[in-house]
Design a protein that fits this description.
This protein is an alpha+beta fold. 52% of the residues lie in helices and 8% in strands. The protein has helices at residues 6-9, 35-42, 45-53, 68-80, 85-94, 96-101, 117-124, 127-156, 204-226, 235-246, 253-280, 290-312, 372-383, 399-408, 427-452, 464-505, 511-516, and strands at residues 176-177, 183-184, 187-196, 330-333, 341-352, 355-362, 389-391. Strands 3, 4, 5, 6 and 7 form a five-stranded mixed sheet that branches. The protein has a two-stranded antiparallel ribbon with strand order 1-2. It is globular. 29% of the residues are buried.
């Protein structure tokens, strides 16, 4: 028996490694049914262009702006694919489908624009603009559904087949005219949630230590620019005391209290030295950028808040700063199982025919029950009639809001106030209330999808206006993908009807009839 040597048993590769120069490709064979191609062909770009053009102010001076399709297409790709600004530009540069969505006429390996331009774009686009673009999606979907319904009616004319069964009308969304002649149609689902910002969990010790560090950095920057030696700050001492505390496995209350007192003292001394140093020559203040000046102002306000809470022995104060880099953020008490307090903006969202609209955006905590009238007004503004039914949480169903619904004759299947009645509830009413609870789950699911899939709970923009645009774009990207799903369904239905009509005109029976017979 012969034994194979190592040389004979050595693996021989079947394929050779290709080089980029020898790689052959052609864009002519690309799939025309790709999702980015479909969106590029069917999104209402004319309406987007009109809405985006209203935000520009360079008609007479300045360089030409990027096309609306390029800007909005890049935003959609960023949030739909959960990419960073830099990764979004790189992904578009490598993907011909995405370049088609952005309106490019031919494939290029050059970036469509610099990633830093996203910041300026977020300053330009507001949540009201994203709501207007969502209205365009809603209008386009309605037009496509009407076209599909019309083709279906024309395809069934003159055929000996049975007419399609009538669609079951939803009782809650059935249109009607109230006693005052106002038209009611459709359902409105409303709720509020928090758009969490990407921020470190606020600990008082960390805030004070960060304030001392930033004051030391600003002092060094100004002195280096002037070529002088400034006063010595106390950051090294503050850092030493801070490390002694955080390195402890068990941080006892007395040690935390003493460290807080020590750090507050160091921060106060550094603030006095910094203010006196800047007051000696007002030109020294110009060495700081605008965002650094805002941080310096936030440090001063944060110190007064922390010092006041420390003296009173409390942990709450009005307009509490939880980050000196984003002083507009506020703690939002939500009472959820995972996190009792969230940090970000509170938004009031309404769902109309499956599309999300952000009607209220606030950096301060508020009672969402005050949004009911706002949601109704926005619904009338968008569709031209009142909703037939409103599905909302019990926090919205207070006496004032119930009076508003009664005045507008809008139905709401919510639990009545007061003690439960002695007589058993009406079975039909009870079934309607259970059905309403199930329908209201749509907005809860929408929040979950927006946060887990479209980064609505990880807002990384630092400025208030850019963070507002980020939040709006998260839900706009969600609306675009919902439009894409409805688009696929409608196009397939239209194709089926056209095929059916072609078979009848050829004198043939549909394939489904042949299978049944």
């Amino acid at each position: 028996m012969s034994v194979k040597t190592d040389k004979q048993m050595r693996f021989k590769p079947r394929y050779k490694q290709l080089t980029i120069d020898g790689f052959r490709s052609s864009l002519e064979g690309l799939d025309k049914g790709n999702r980015w191609v479909w969106l590029g062909d069917h999104l209402p770009w004319e309406e987007f262009e009109k809405q985006y053009g209203q935000t520009l102010n360079n008609h007479s001076v300045g360089a030409g702006a990027k096309p609306a399709r390029m800007v909005i297409g890049a935003m959609i790709i960023k949030h739909a694919a959960r990419l960073s600004d830099v990764d979004t530009i790189e992904m578009i540069r490598e993907n011909p489908y995405m370049q088609y969505l952005c309106g490019l006429e031919e494939f290029t390996d050059q970036p469509i624009f610099e990633a830093s331009l996203f910041v300026d774009l977020r300053k330009r686009i507001s949540e009201d603009d994203t709501n207007k673009m969502t209205e365009s999606l809603l209008k386009r979907e309605q037009e496509m559904k009407e076209a599909a319904s019309k083709q279906k009616e024309e395809g069934s004319k003159g055929h000996d087949e049975e007419p399609p069964a009538a669609t079951v009308q939803d009782k809650d969304a059935a249109p009607f005219v109230d006693s005052k002649g106002r038209e009611h149609r459709g359902e409105l689902k409303i709720d509020a949630t928090c758009a969490d910002a990407e921020v470190r969990y606020p600990v008082d010790i960390n805030l004070i230590e960060t304030g001392c560090r930033k004051l030391s950095e600003y002092m060094e920057k100004i002195c280096e620019g002037l070529g002088i030696t400034g006063p010595r700050l106390h950051y090294k001492d503050a850092r030493r005391a801070y490390l002694m505390l955080i390195k402890q496995a068990r941080k006892k209350g007395r040690m935390v209290h003493d460290t807080m007192a020590l750090l507050l003292g160091y921060l106060y001394k550094d603030m006095r030295l910094m203010v006196d140093f800047l007051a000696a020559d007002y030109r020294r203040y110009d060495f700081l950028h605008l965002y650094e000046k805002n941080i310096f102002t936030a440090i001063i306000k944060m110190y007064h808040q922390q010092n006041d809470m420390f003296k009173k022995g409390v942990h709450q104060c009005p307009d509490r700063i939880i980050s000196i880099f984003q002083p507009h953020l506020r703690p939002i008490v939500r009472g959820k199982a995972g996190a009792n307090v969230e940090f970000g903006a509170k938004i009031g969202v309404s769902i109309v025919r499956g599309y999300n609209f952000i009607d209220h955006h606030s950096w301060d905590a508020y009672n969402e029950s005050i949004d009911l009238q706002l949601h109704i007004d926005k619904y009338v503004e968008r569709l031209g009639y009142l909703p037939a039914t409103i599905h909302a949480d019990k926090i919205y169903m207070n006496k004032a809001n119930r009076a508003v619904l009664k005045e507008l004759e809008i139905k709401s299947y919510s639990k009545p106030l007061g003690r439960p009645p002695k007589d058993p509830p009406d079975p039909e009413r009870q079934a309607a209330m259970a059905r309403a609870v199930g329908k209201r789950n749509e907005i809860e699911c929408s929040f979950g999808t927006g946060k887990r899939v479209y980064q609505a709970n990880d807002i990384r923009a630092k400025l208030p206006e850019t963070a507002e645009c980020w939040t709006g774009m998260c839900y706009f990207a969600k609306n675009v993908m919902k439009f894409f799903r409805e688009l696929c369904h409608d196009l397939i239905e239209m194709l089926r009807i056209l095929t059916l009509m072609t078979d009848w005109r050829a004198g043939l029976r549909p394939v489904c009839r042949m299978v049944v017979n």
